[in-house]
């Protein structure tokens, strides 16, 4: 519970909801379930390793171009 003067009420309310407080959003729960399910698959580790390889190649190319 936050106690404040009336002049700060609106700013505090906007900061708290929906920013750090909100209801359980079914589509977010479903998306997380799908992502966790994919992470359990055998080929997910291979996918992660390829992402790291791609990032290294991209970083090297950007460095070579002066970025």
UniProtKB/TrEMBL annotation:
Residues 5-67 form the Serine hydroxymethyltransferase-like domain. InterPro entries: PyrdxlP-dep_Trfase, PyrdxlP-dep_Trfase_major, PyrdxlP-dep_Trfase_small, Ser_HO-MeTrfase-like, SHMT-like_dom. One of its GO terms (cellular component) is cytosol. One of its GO terms (biological process) is methylation. Keywords: Amino-acid biosynthesis, Methyltransferase, One-carbon metabolism, Pyridoxal phosphate, Transferase. Pfam families: SHMT (PF00464). It comes from the Bacteria. GO terms for molecular function: glycine hydroxymethyltransferase activity; methyltransferase activity; pyridoxal phosphate binding. Belongs to the SHMT family. PANTHER family: SERINE HYDROXYMETHYLTRANSFERASE, SERINE HYDROXYMETHYLTRANSFERASE 1. This is Serine hydroxymethyltransferase. The lineage of its organism: Bacteria, Bacillati, Bacillota, Bacilli, Bacillales. The gene is glyA_2.
């Amino acid at each position: 519970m936050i106690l404040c003067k009336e002049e700060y009420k609106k700013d505090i309310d906007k900061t708290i909801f929906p920013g750090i407080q909100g209801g359980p959003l079914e589509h977010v729960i479903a998306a997380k379930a799908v992502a966790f399910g994919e992470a359990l698959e055998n080929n997910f580790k291979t996918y992660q390793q390829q992402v790291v390889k791609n990032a290294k190649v991209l970083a090297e190319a950007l460095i070579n171009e002066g970025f």
